[in-house]
## 1
Amino acid sequence: MSAISRDEVAHLAHLARLDVTDDELDRFASQLDVILQSVNRIGEVTAEDIPPTSHAVPLTNVYRADEPVPSLRREDVLAGAPDTDSDRFRVPRILGEEE
Amino acid sequence: MTDITSLTAAEIAASIKDGTVTAEAVTRAFLARIDELEPTIHAFLHIDAEGALATAREVDAARAAGETLGSLAGVPIAIKDIVVTKGMPTTAASKMLENWVPPYDATITERIRAARMPILGKTNLDEFAMGSSTEYSAFGPTRNPWDTARIPGGSGGGSAAAVAARMAPLAIGTDTGGSIRQPGAVTGTVGAKPTYGGTSRYGLVAFSSSLDTPGPVARTMLDAALLHEIIAGHDPRDSTSIPQAVPPVVAAVEQGLTGDLSGLRLGLVTEFEVGEGAEPGVIAAYRDGVETLAKLGADIVEVSCPHFQYALPAYYLIAPSECSSNLARFDGVRYGLRVGDNGERSLEEVMASTREAGFGAEVKRRIILGTYALSSGYVDEYYGQAQKVRTLITRDFEAAFGRVDALISPTTPFVAFEFGARTGDPYLMYLADLYTIPSNLYGGPAVSVPVGLSDGLPAGLQVMAPTMRDDVAYRVAAALESTQTPLLADQAPDPAKGA
Amino acid sequence: MSSLILLPSYAEATAEYDPVIGLETHVELGTRTKMFCGCTTVFGAEPNTQVCPVCLGLPGALPVANVAAIEATIRIGLALNCSIASWCRFARKNYFYPDMPKNFQTSQYDEPLCGEGYLDVNVDGRTVRIDIERVHLEEDTGKSLHVGGATGRIHGATESLVDYNRAGIPLVEIVTKPVTGTGALAPEIARAYVTELREVIRSLGVSDVRMEQGSMRCDVNTSLNRPGDEWGTRSETKNVNSLRSVERAVRSEIIRQAGVLDAGGRIVQETRHFHEDTGESTPGRSKETATDYRYFPEPDLVPMAPDPEWVAALKAALPELPRVRRQRLQESWGLSDHDMESVLNAGAVELIEETIASGASSDGARKWWMGELSRRANESGVELTDLAITPAQVGELQSLIDDGKLNDKLARQVIDGVLNGEGGPADVAKARGLEVVSDTGALQAAVDEAIAANPAVAEKIRAGTHAAAGVLIGAVMKTTKGQADAKTVRELIIQRLS
């Protein structure tokens, strides 16, 4: 049985905002299938009582003081933007909701 | 002086200090070498001749004014194009960032500038550092100077090839799963992955935040160590940066170069001896290396690291998961590419078109894989389980380092392969990182040093050490290097004869 | 479809259904710099002038947590009786939105900085304990200007313009457990909770908690069930930007849901947007295809493990909390529980306190804020604090009255002037000629004129019927256009006719 279906890849591509082509869907589905079959091996490891490692360094409480640092100049902020208007980043109309 | 580019970085620095050569002449020599070889090798994505020469002239002026020069002042360097450089394009070898010029410097860029090392340019890589062959660069692959029909390793193939071909005496790489060490091994150069947190990630275009580590690419252990001491050290802008003194790697290399390893115990990872698809020639070179280390006085023992076999699967869940999040910012709003904004389409459509057009196939594959591994219903089974395996691998390392000072393995299971040999099957490509990934998951330092040839192509030996004991890895590798140098010098790459 | 539903009255709705409410409140902390970078946080700066590689999400930039924000969050947690985590992490909440520079929000998921706690509020003479589920720390998003639509809203807009000045400002989210058993009081309890929470946070000095500027924002979850049944499906109303709206949002949602249920319909789990102008909400994104946020621990930030000694010191240094302070004030002002509650509901505690501090009596201060000024705030649909009059000015007004320079009627006219921006009370009184006529010569003439015009009344007073003086006082007030002090006029009349 394949680990990942074409529809599932389409859903994931949508979550990841990738407008993948039909060809890619087919190719990714079969390639991800191979990859997942291989990585599925980690399921063999019994690790119920094992704490997960999210960070490779044993550090905690790394903070900065609440002291201002100069911001970028606005021309540098906007320099790399695909489109700007009125000193803001211009984007096409938004379908989603305001958060 | 016959050929400046054949000198090591340490020799160049000394020559500049004693006035034998000017920094400008050095930089010009490397720029000339780049002019000559770049059409063949394609190690660079951007060359900054003017900027490099300006820095070189500053060094010469400083020397003329009687200033004391830093350890590598005037020694040119190439920087992997995933490290942010203010005012100089940084593309991560992606169409997504093709025209992006960062408004800020990475911490290591700042340190390189402060050390007055002329920056020759930005080197090629697999897009966003995802790959093991540099074939996934959006701007064409880099060729291996040993055989231009073959890959230079990846993701940092550009940096390794530039150093191997003497287009730069030093380079910066970044290592997430082996991207400094594996290219080092297949191009016959030195690649060092420092302790995670030992070198700042601030300004590295993030691939997998909990694994990414910048480090030196060089022709010798001493050169690597000198560069290591310039770029390493605590950075308050990186929360994962370790607030401790930099391990004394230069002194460790000097000690290693005496060729005496007595008192050190080295472990051979049992599980790697039977690893998937390792080439006999690579294993033979590695065994020769181990024998040499024993002759130098090291005590060699076998060590079992039972969970290392799960390192590759764990890595290919953790790294894609983090990358799926890190690469979400490339959406055509604030910087970089925007595709399909015709005034009619919605932002959502434009974002999806932009990301579809801007990312290459391997990047998209990993984003989708990572999205899957983090999605509800699968996160415990994949991402969560991979993080537990990470704990077990770390415990394997800790247990091993209770018995030995360092672990030894081949750097990569195979020598440089031919272009296209593994692009059809992503998992075949992933196997290139089989031996390098465990150190990334653990966070400890690991160095790849040339260990001879297999069928005329370089092989590398990897030395893995406990976290913040980069000095141990450098010492062992330098000791091995002291027995190998003549061999490599006799077979210095000459791309003009390649392929 | 909804227009076909006949809405029940609020009384009918709450007679038939039990509401369950829950509140998620976001508070922007008043730190000098942002959560993960050193950019300043001044409100109202020119667009995109308070941004850097970190808060713009530039490739390569990394966050470093602001210790002042963590301290403020712990203090909020302590003030809300929460447990403080001994170890916790930030997490990435992944979703695409142009306001959010990295397309993930650095937030907290299953390991909040502050765990369970509670906040007691007074409603209708009783104390209601609101259980707190969690308090966590995250970063704010940027702000979009929606262009081309009729209303400035997202719908109908042809494009949007994004400003990232607000992106990365520390945001504390305070989540209640579901509040049950409130019956018809749900809207008042919701309002009282947000009011009290605002007071607590203000007392800590960690935020200016200005709902109208968005530094305090409320999402209200509402569901209905028939008594004895399981809880219903909940809706989440966003964009609730004033205390008054909190109450209105709950009330209107109870009525709306009751209407749907009465008609045999089904409540959909959805996000609704509250509209300040209409007091109604409109549906937003349906949560039936809930976003998969793919939370995972933020690898760029190491875990937080607040030192217990630090937490103990923060706890010891908490200021007097509003509830305690209110009890003290209530006693010192000599108010009944009911009167004190009115003051609280009106958001007038500080105003009255400051008015007293400027020299007014407690009765005088309360009378103006709770009477005339509350009436005007209600008429204009604004909070008391939004009125263009300061406690010091109210104090000044009261002392003019105490000195006999103004009477209540004139004082109300002075308030008109102050609210109109004509200056302080004394200035307005002078400019508008509103001072009490205290010139006894002028008053005497008016009194004599009134006596002459009403001989029969004057005779009665002479005969000892002092109650008849009212007619003459009225006449005097008329000729002086209300600027006489009635007491003085009365004395003059009786003096003259004795």
## 2
Amino acid sequence: MSAVVSPIREPLIEGGKSYRQITEDICSPTESAPNVAWIVAFIISVAALAFYVFCVVWTVWVGIGSWNLNRTIGWGWDITNFVWWIGIGHAGTLISAILLLFRQKWRTGVNRAAEAMTIFAVMCAGQFPLIHMGRLWLGFFIFPYPNTRGPLWVNFNSPLLWDVFAISTYFTVSLLFWYTGLVPDFATLRDRAKGIRKNIYNFLSFGWTGAAKHWQRFESLSLVLAGLATPLVLSVHTIVSFDFATSVIPGWHTTIFPPYFVAGAIFSGFAMVQTLMVITRKVLKLEQYITLGHIESMNKVILVTGTIVGVAYLTELFIAWYSGYIYEQYAFYNRVMGPYYWSYIGMMSCNVLSPQIFWWKKMRRSIFVTFVMSIFVNIGMWFERFVIIATTLARDYLPSSWSYYTPTWVEIGLFVGTLGLFFTLYLIFTRTAPVVAVAEVKAILKSAGDQYLEPNARHAAKVVKEEVETQA
Amino acid sequence: MSKENKDVLYGLYDDEEVLLKAVDQANAGHLEIMDVFSPFPVHGLDPKLGLSESRLHIAGFVFGAIGTLTAFLFMTWVFTRDWPIIFGGKPYWSVPAFIPITFELTVLFASIGMVVTFYTICGMAPGIWNPILDDRITDDKFCIAFDVTGSEEAEKEKLKSFFTASGASEVNTKTI
């Protein structure tokens, strides 16, 4: 029954847990009153969210002129924030889908929270394209619906429209995937609960029973959804990069954008997962489920993707020089040495240089370094999008139109506000749902629990020996 | 599921390996298992229970194909029949530009279709109360259930002795 795992492998569940203890450890935080730290964090998040609502109302009331965008720089913090959030929203589905297909068992410790993070990040991302329309009550114009103007359809050849479809699909599929995984765990909460809580969790669990046929269909569904979500997750950021790459702006019009954006998205997504996990595991006392091994695995992903992104930055510079075309060369000279040189420095140091610290195992396994690094990467990836968007637009075709851009308080408020939205949702999630996939962790206990590694290895050695003897 | 109440005799096991052996014993004794419940998917159980492979992925393929056709044919109709517009000097029927949306709708239709199918065939929906034999089945107990509606006492005794012999930690009856 128990699959054989090499004893060299680290256990993924520590503390000699039984099934009962796993349920208890993961479900009990949802059943007690929140502690002071949670309440303080929640109040701060809700305050930021309230400020967000205020800034949105301000933008709508005063008009888009309350932002500092100008004729030359038409995209500023709004689209920077959009791409940043969408990038962050890539880790969850990557962890749950791609790592499921690759049979990486460590994903079970972090996939639930990472997927929740994905959904909340995509919700934050979705705000910006809507707000930056200015008249956001006309936002439904972006969908092809039969209208009285012909009907006049949307332009299906436009990457901006592809983006609408990609992000709506990504949000829907991530939500379905996440929720379906939650259903058996909601049933666990239901069966522990009493009174009104039991009713609520039964509603959420859709009446799950745990019958053998249902589990079989559940696994089949998870596998196919993972198979669908894997190309989907790659397509979403590819299409976001098309927003830039299919334009004719020097510095945007490059074929390197899709893979480079996808690597960057994975990079920033994992960084945000680390930021959240390092705190969550401590506060909810889940260190035995989200172990140092999990953190190290994610740091390796950060190292690899950070380095890929670094190679992409250097490739861009090289190709610009090698093109022998002065306008292309100038676009990149401007990116590095132009008026926004400081954001390029921020990007390079946070995204390319600082992750190199993870070549050292000691650093990969340090909670402090991981946390600081995850913040660095989040900042660096924000700078990357700002470099691509604002720097490029600031020096457009005609020198007479060249311009500079700094955000107003409204634009800063919108960004800080979406952080508030994100953390409000995440904090509610940690109080109402199991932050680790209970059923999935139980399913790997016999192969990856620390008390089983030794016996499993002994058993495997015995089986192999017998096999050899019967052959001989 | 039939509307009439069923009397169910069920045994709870503490470990999935004991459960698998018990299912083997039940099969050897020609006992007709109604259902098996577990807190997580137990691998190797389905063939023992004679469950054939799920056909859910076929539904997924069909829904996906509907999505592909919907997206591609709709865009084709819009740009060649309903309101042809030239964008950037490209042909009306510019297939490569249709690929991203076609792909996204394929995934969208397949996912929504499969998830809705899954909940429908499992008899699950928000607010439905399906009968639960024991609250610990979603925690740490593995359950084999027999339908004993209208069974003889001797029949029930035979099942109970099976449970004792196969290592069940508890045996109960419940009307669902």
